[in-house]
Amino acid sequence: MNIRSQVSMVFHLDKCIGCHTCSIACKNVWTDRKGAEYMWWNNVETKPGTGFPTAWEDQDQYGGGFVQSGEGLVQLRSNGRYRGMANIFHNPRLPQLDDYYEPWTYRYEDLFTAKAGDDQPIARAVSLVTGKPIEIEAGPNWDDDLSGSPIYAANDPNLEALTPAQRAQMFEMERLVFFYLPRICNHCSNPACVASCPSGALYKRGEDGVVVLNQDRCRGWRMCVSSCPYKKTYFNWSTGKSEKCVLCYPRLESGQAPACFHSCVGRIRYLGVVLYDADKIVEVAAKKDEELVQAQRDMILDPKDPEIIRLALEAGVPWSVIESAQKSPVYKFVKEWGLALPLHVEYRTLPMLFYVPPLLPILGNGDGNLYETTNDELFGTLDRNRLPVEYLARMFSGGNVGLIRYALKKMIAVRYHRRQITVGDVEGDKLTQILAEADLTAEEAEAIYRLTSLPNFEDRFVIPPMHREEAIMALTDPLEFKGAAGFGFITPPERQL
Amino acid sequence: MTSVLLFGALPYLAIGLMLVVSIQRYRRDGFTVTSLSSEFLESKWLFWGSVPLHLGIITVFFGHLIGFLVPRSVMAWNAVPLRLLILETTGLMAGILTLVGLVVLIARRASDARLRAVTSPVDIGVYVILLFQVITGLWIALGLRWGSAWYTHVLVPYLRSLFILQPDVRVMDDMPLVVRLHVIGAFLLFATFSATRLVHMLVAPIPYLWRRVQIVVWNRKRPGLVSGARS
Question: How far is B12 from chain A (nearest CA, A)?
Fold first, then answer.
């Protein structure tokens, strides 16, 4: 057993209101630079929809992630060791700027310098790449809220999991449904970007599992961009280097939550340490699609088990981190309650960001065109919901419908539990029956309710002490970068020569 | 006197600049050592430019290098006319591939506004010098037949004289102008190499072929475990 600690995350989709505050917080901190304007390390998508970059989930086009390659083995879907080297002069899978969008600004000074005339002066849009006027044809949230649209929502690759009837139902005007999907780098335990980097510039930090990219070692071979199935490594067209979400590790190291977590208005984000067995990574990644989620959950270890604690200490995990793991909200959502699921686990990168699937559209379903919220048949609504369970299964459980139903049932049961407390109209043993069927106790239901609805800052973000002070002192002279430009750069990180 | 400067002094200056500046740039400014790929902005034409250029230029480079390193083996190979013909044709094809790739890349860069935005004066200089080298090289291949044969007899001794620090520049005086231009162009290429995007060839990711798949970096020593993942 090779125990590692990982700073892991949960996004509660039931609570996401799609306000994009997270995206803006991230943009202001990290990607407000030349060559990075088009990057959204954090973005929020409308589902069903094509997302950012367009149709990123279509791996036939982009070739991201891993595929099974025999018993207990995985290999990169495209651009592995040999094909990657053969494609190094031209990577046929590389997304283009137009798959994202051409970044632009407006010529605001024209508003002040225009000659007096009959027409209102306008500020034309100019490309941030060429500086020339452009027609804006796409943007980072171009399909925001456009559920049911024939060019965006209808091209969602996840709709393949549905029957034609289910699809038609999702696009009926009266039954349109959508939810928001905030995305950052998943900081996978089997990262495809790391595996595909010819220079070895990408790596996973051992102590906290954050996947980062060494800007001094990146040579712009671009394989990480196509190999990341989530399209969360971006190519900076100005510096000729790739960049990605760093989970705000400078903030984490000083005990602060990452900018997108900290700024989340809906408080949908949770962050905490999990311990997992790194020896199992390949074995787990090679499982069948439907078994992947359970296998990944089994890989995550119980931080209260004395035997695990002993092994973790032996593996060099500090006691303070184990203590932090015991309080981790992520462990509760993922392991104890089975509510949170990884996004597109079938890409086999073992993402360490988990999503609680959205429940809201289900309860609001009903017969005919009437908006119906009665729940006489307990979980019956699950089968008649507007957002088919198969759609969620395609996104969050490798097609395993059972896991989605399990999570949604629990969330419904928690609502019954709270309704009984606040309204008191759930009849007699109905509540007991519901809780039993949802595999819940009243205490658990209450705990889920509290962590979902009433968590304070410390409940949501249990940030482990990173002990960077010791690590830095042990390895390098703290004065090494004295007088430098910061972050290890001696000259400004700009395109040169 | 001119030829002493051009063929006796310039090569040392060029190699010296290339070594010192490349190492210094790698150590001080690792961030600037990159291929500066423009595929993200334009991919379709890059395929028809970049692939022929690289395949051609790598073949040409190793052709020159092998002739320099093992001239006797090349002479022996060339003893049979058919084998000489095969070698010459391969070289010529590689040269033509390089030229085609280069022309496509230059046309591509000139015709796309996004690419012009990421083109520096240094890039234009690189194109000029490479184009000059490929054209003079092809001229030699076509106009001064069986270069693979006489290169080993005439130029390799000169290049070797440079390496043993006893430059023998007389042989260059007897060379046709185009050969002298090609050699001078090569030295200019070496001299400017480390100030251009060409440095990316020094960091060609060959170790990727055998390195472990996943990389895990530890800041602390882990008791009982080697640093790095085993997966």
Answer: 24
Is A235's CB within 8 Å of B205's CB? no
Q: How far apart are CA A198 and CA A202, in angstroms?
A: 9
Percent of chain B with pLDDT over 70: 95
Contacts of residue A175, Cβ cutoff 8 Å, sequence gap at least 6 = A169, A365, A386
Q: How far is residue B89's CA from residue A276's CA, in Å, rounded to a whole number?
A: 59
Q: How many domains does chain B have?
A: 1
Q: What pLDDT digit, counting tens, does each position of A141-158 carry?
A: 898 998 878 888 888 999
Q: ω into residue A53 within 30 of 0, thus cis?
A: yes
User: Is B186 part of any domain?
Assistant: yes
- Band of the pLDDT at A466, cuts 50, 70, 90? confident
**Domain contains A87:** yes
Q: With a CB-CB cutoff of 8 Å, which residues 274-333 of chain A face chain B?
A: 278-279, 281-282, 314-316
d(CA A442, CA A302) in angstroms, rounded, equals: 22
Q: If you write DSSP's letter for every residue of B179-196 in order, what string do you get?
A: HHHHHHHHHHHHHHHTTS
Per-residue pLDDT at A171: 82
Contact B142, B135 (CB under 8 A): no
Residue B211 lies in a domain: no
* Number of domains making up chain A: 1
Domain that includes residue B114, residue range: 2-206
ipTM for the predicted complex comes to 0.90
B116 contacts on A by Cβ (under 8 Å) = 130
| Cβ-contact B187, B158 below 8 angstroms | no
HSE, side-chain direction, 13 A CA sphere, residue A415: 15
pLDDT tens-digit series, residues A343-377: 999 999 999 999 999 986 555 555 555 555 555 56
The Cα A162–Cα A140 span in angstroms is 27
Residue B196 lies in a domain: yes
Nearest to A65, CA basis, from A159, A183, A195? A195
- Between A70 and A321, whose confidence is greater? A321
Q: For residue A172, what pLDDT is reported?
A: 78
A420 is written with which tokens? Answer: 């009984």
d(CA B58, CA A136): 42
Suggest the residue from B213, B217, B230 to mutate for an interface test with chain A (most A CBs closer than 10 A). Answer: B213
Give the model's pLDDT for residue B226: 43
Residue of A nearest to B45 (CA): A90
pLDDT of residue A34: 93
For chain A, the helix, strand and coil percentages under 3-state DSSP, each to the nearest 5: 40, 15, 50
pLDDT tens digits, A41-76 = 999 999 999 999 999 999 999 999 999 988 888 999
Unique residue bearing structure tokens 């002298």: B180
Q: Residue A350 and residue A59: Cα distance in Å, rounded?
A: 16
φ, ψ at B107 (rounded to 5°): -65, -40
- The domain that contains B96 carries what CATH number? 1.20.950.20
Q: Is residue A187 part of a domain?
A: yes
**How many Å apart are CA B186 and CA A286, to the nearest integer?**
51
Q: Please give the residue of chain A at the shortest CA–CA distance from B222.
A: A316
The dihedral formed by the CA atoms of B119, B121, B124 and B125, expressed in degrees to the nearest 10: -150
What residue numbers bound the domain in which A249 lies?
3-253
User: What are A385-433's pLDDT values in tens digits?
Assistant: 778 889 999 999 999 999 999 999 999 899 889 989 999 888 878 889 9
Residue B80 lies in a domain: yes
